[in-house]
Amino acid sequence: MSMSGRPEWYDRNPLAVGALYESGALAPHATTQRFIYTVPAGRRAVIHSALAAVMRDTAAAPLGSAQALVTTDVSARFTAPQLRDNTVGAVAQQVLAPGAILPAGGVVEGYTTDNSTGGTCLFWLSFSATEFDA
Amino acid sequence: MSMSARPRARDRNPLSLCEIGLVTPTSPHALTQRWAYTVPARRRAQVHHVFCRVVRVGGAAALGLAVARVQRTTAGGSVAQILRSRIYSTVSSTVGQIVGWGPGALLLNPGDTLAGATSDASTGGTVSYQLSYTAMEFDL
Hints:
The structure holds two protein chains of two kinds.
Chain A: E1 15-22, E2 29-38, E3 43-58, E4 66-72, E5 76-79, E6 82-83, E7 91-96, E8 101-102, E9 107-114, E10 120-133
Antiparallel strand pairs in A: 1-10, 2-9, 3-7, 3-8, 3-10, 4-5, 4-6, 4-9
Chain B: E1 15-19, E2 22-26, E3 29-38, E4 43-58, E5 66-73, E6 79-87, E7 99-101, E8 106-108, E9 113-120, E10 126-139
Antiparallel strand pairs in B: 1-10, 2-10, 3-9, 4-7, 4-8, 4-10, 5-6, 5-9
């Protein structure tokens, strides 16, 4: 219950925001940003969902670590599944309902990385949120 | 009660929504939408839970990826993937990742859509799917 006399967050000019990244088959690569969302001035955002997944598409030689990450404020990880399996079709996935409230200037970012040699992986990154007046 | 001027969401003509979303064993197919819910004008909705499951029923001749997914698309066209379950095995009765959760009262605004879809890039064989959700719709 709101004791402040202010409308609930979903009545303060709510705007649905989010991002989706679905890769094709990607060769090994350094950490690469795939999306970034920044909460605008005068607004806040509640983060409803974060999804990250990585799947081995073709075998590596030698195998390293492939990772998909959805983070907030650079280093705080919502989801960060790590794949260390050379079996084609092997999957690492994490989904989360953070419920986190980000202030103006807060960010949500998606990254992928694979330090294997050779082979390919598929990556999925997504988040959903609602932005509202601070 | 809320101290704000407006009643809370659950007191604004609430309507419960539910989709079971069972897809019986199905042959390989391109991405196919199984259901979609679009928030009517002057209403909003809070999604309480989403669930996805994929199960191999009949072995495939040539293996491909079978997927069940639930996505939110805003009225403006922005897409977020809420849940995804997949299977990459031709062994009958293999169950793909079962993923179910309550996405923090995911809010849908007028014109936003929540949709469930499946695909299977295998050759031959069958896969069953379940994509479900529950939500509450209320006055804007």
